[in-house]
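Problem: given the chain below (118 residues), write out its structure.
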Amino acid sequence: MKYSVCKTNDMKPGELKEIKVQGKRMVLCCTGESTFSAVSALCPHQAANLVDVKRLDGTIECLPNGQTGFVKCNEIIRCPRHGYEWDVNTGKALFQTDKLNIKSYKLEVEGEDVVIYM
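Solution.
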């Protein structure tokens, strides 16, 4: 089933908000102009509420040229308790373990509606 969770102009890049769909708490993330993702609202480490994060962020990675750089702007959510990071597009943890990935949900933009598939 699909559920409308917001309008495309309700959020700006970097913003997030809590949504509930079928009793599941999630974080809806605006990663770019009319680009959205949704992930579980709880950190799998100690159940910190990821909705407490004020804005999406980026992260520092080693680039192919050997330098470090700021990447994935507005695509990273960081746990407010211990600083663990996840890519909100995939739910994949950025700290070398698949044991602490978070659930990501399929979203699409249909006209002005952002819809989630459950």
